[in-house]
Design goal:
Oligomer: single chain
Number of helices: 5
Distance between the termini: 42 Å
Low-confidence stretches: 19-26
Mean pLDDT: 80
Strand order of the largest sheet: 1-2
Radius of gyration: 18 Å
Shape: extended
Structural class: mainly alpha
Number of strands: 4
Strand content: 5-15%
Length: 127
């Protein structure tokens, strides 16, 4: 199901963030020979638009360079597209609730530029 896919992707993202964080943020406890997270360490998750967003044409989104590149040849993206992905576009409330249930306090996400500039350029009447 979509929720299961989102959960799996979210857990994968958390694992990567935790691994990177462990390698870069851990500090040595001066009174012991163990590593601990600082008291103010902020657990969170991060995602990237194309890998999680889905909804490739929803809300007036135009094609991105990734959309074009992935459909040019099935070899480019193993035949996969971002058309549905983890469908974070439609399931963001459930995804954020999952993060909250896990106790995460931060979420860094990106939005496809083709949602902001569907034609690839700004409407100069708005500039």
């Amino acid at each position: 199901s979509s929720t299961k896919s989102s959960t799996i992707a979210l857990v994968g993202v958390i694992a990567v963030v935790a691994t990177i964080s462990t390698a870069t943020i851990l500090h040595r406890n001066r009174h012991a020979h163990t590593s601990v997270f600082p008291p103010n360490f902020l657990w969170g998750a991060a995602t990237s638009a194309y890998q999680i967003e889905g909804g490739s044409t929803a809300g007036g989104r135009g094609p991105s360079i990734w959309d074009t590149w992935c459909v040019q040849s099935s070899e480019n993206c193993n035949g996969d597209t971002g058309d549905v992905s983890d469908d974070h576009y439609h399931l963001w409330k459930e995804d954020v609730q999952l993060m909250s249930n896990l106790g995460l306090k931060a979420y860094r996400f990106s939005i496809s530029w083709s949602r902001i500039l569907p034609n690839g350029t700004a409407d100069c009447r708005l500039c």
